[in-house]
Amino acid sequence: MPQETKHATVTWRRGMEFEGGVPGGPAAITDGHGIAGPSPVELLLVSVAGCTGSDVISILEKMRMQVESFRMEVAGVRREEMPRRFISIHVVYHVAGTALDEVKIRHAVDLSLEKYCSVTHSLAGDIALTYDVALG
């Protein structure tokens, strides 16, 4: 099976601001100072949430769950010394809807984090990745 190659272009704007995205697609701004946009590290947390969130919603739809609202809070703990990479990431999945089954929601999250989410699987293997589910 051939490997898939993804491409992105990132251009310096000014200061610590960069604009980037996939060729022909929408652009995102990142700012090392967190003023014009999220910092690259914050954007990594957004990427984790976006990836696992897409998986979870897809799985819950297949389970015929009646999700009415869904949001995630993501917190990452970084090392004090360089490189200041993440040593742990925690995601809280807030799910509201009709007749929700927490066991099935947790199963959907587990499937995402253990099997499907390419962003979390691209992170260093020693990063502790934990989560909670909040209904309502």
Q: What can be said about this structure in brief?
A:
The protein is an alpha+beta fold and 136 residues long. It has helices spanning 40-62, 102-116, 118-122, and strands at residues 9-14, 17-21, 27-31, 66-78, 86-98, 128-135.
Name its key features:
single chain, 136 residues, alpha+beta, three-stranded antiparallel β-sheet, three-stranded mixed β-sheet, 3 helices, 6 strands, 37% strand, globular
Give the CA-CA distance, first to last residue: 43 Å
Relative helix content: 25-40%
Mean pLDDT: 95
**CA-atom Rg in angstroms:** 17 Å
Q: Secondary-structure element order, as H and E?
A: EEEHEEHHE
Helix/sheet category: alpha+beta
Total strands: the figure is: 6
Unreliable spans: none
Report strand order across the widest sheet: 1-2-3
Q: Tell me the overall shape.
A: globular
Largest sheet features: 3 strands, antiparallel
**Strand composition percent:** 35-45%
- Please work out how many helical segments DSSP would assign: 3
